[in-house]
Amino acid sequence: MLPKKLRTLRQIYAVFFFALFLLLLLLTDYANLKGFQTSLFHEMNPLTAIAGFLSSGTFYKGLLWSLAIIVLTLFLGRFFCSWICPLGILNQFMSWFFNRRKPLQDYEINRYRPIYRLKYYLLAALLMLALFGSLQIGLLDPIALMARSFTASVLPAANQAGAGIYLNQPVFHGGALIASILLAIILANRFLTRFWCRVLCPLGALLGLLSRRAPLRIQRDVDKCIDCDKCLKSCQGACDPHQELRISECHVCMNCIEDCPSQALHFGLPRERSSVHRPLDVGRRRLMETLVASAALFPMLRSAVSAKTNPPPEVIRPPGSLPEAEFLARCIKCAACMKVFPTNVLQPALLEAGIEGLWTPILVNRIGYCEQNCVLCGQVCPTGAIRSIPVQEKIGAPPYDRPHKLGTAFYDRGRCLPWAMHIECIVCEEMCPTSPKAIWYKSVDIRDRDGETLRLKQPYVDPRLCIGCGICENKCPVEDKAAIRVSSVGETRSESNQMILNAKLTL
Fold first, then answer.
1. What percent of the chain has pLDDT above 70?
2. What domains are there in the chain, each with its CATH number?
3. What is the pTM of this model?
């Protein structure tokens, strides 16, 4: 039996892990420091490990941390939700902050409700899609959701307010939408304590399934229990500890043990007069309907135009990204790569890559560009969707014979100043980082409308040398729509997205 005063201990652990999550998120910018595990929370996530294995058929080595959580959950129950999960901790704090209820309302709000089954059906749907190769758990996974929300909205907003988190203010496409989702999750606690955790969280559902046979759990002595229901007052999981406890809903917060006036509750092995526990409240028919509906949804997703079926020019993936099908089978939309990119070029995709590619990373070169010697995105990716490549591979230095191409730049001569306006400009050529430069020019004599002869340098792109880094597009002085723009065609990761099939341009 554990000591009774556990609430303070759990609160200390919760604050510690929430602070650790924020610290690691901030330290993502320094991911190249050896020995620093900035993706720890992603790698200890069992949902990421299991769904990623189903979708890709591989188990990424970094996710071995999740095995520790799985083993502990099998023995201790669903402790992760109250002791470690940053979104769960945030929801619990906001539930306390919004709590202006009368004592009787606290008892009623913490009773089990049939709507809590929904998270198990969502889990079944996400795992079924993953089994068919569509990894969508990042949309609802609490770790990925928190990391994405803080990266794309919370931290940039704090920096805008003067927190000094970044030297340069980052901006993100769809940041307001991502912020609105997090805000809705937080405000839902005003109406139902830990609404997200109890109703929607697929990770909580998975941990609930794993904890069904946990030998160590909350036990109620039926002889000592006086049916006062005080154990409901601070119950975080709404698991009905006053009756036949629902073990799959219990967050192991231990609040009921401290609140019980008759010492009828304890955490540990069952005793002679301990009550039984209720089975998982999930209907088999509803579960089968969910699985069938998910199986029917998959071909609909794949029949839509996507970056895999018809690569659009604007879907430019980070250096080291796997081929599109494999990339989507691994990416959990956590935004770790977006956080670490020094130029803010990586942005969450909306519908550019299709529905399956929502919030996956793409390069938007009008916002930033890919640094020549930067490979941080692959170092922080928790699932291997972006390979960790050395700088030598990226730039094509020995022993590699060619650089890593993200795409190819093309000129819009109707907008290019020397071509269309007869205005001198060689910014793109000056900025090109390759050696020899992929952008070159011809000096030509042009007669303007007044009959005067102008000597201009008209630029060209050598597709054999262009690596698609986007600095030319980013620095182009034509403000609204650049005169030179990078397309995904020619990317190293694809054998088919080439300008001339079966005849790749070589150096």
1. 94
2. 14-25+38-213 (no CATH), 404-507 (3.30.70.20)
3. 0.90
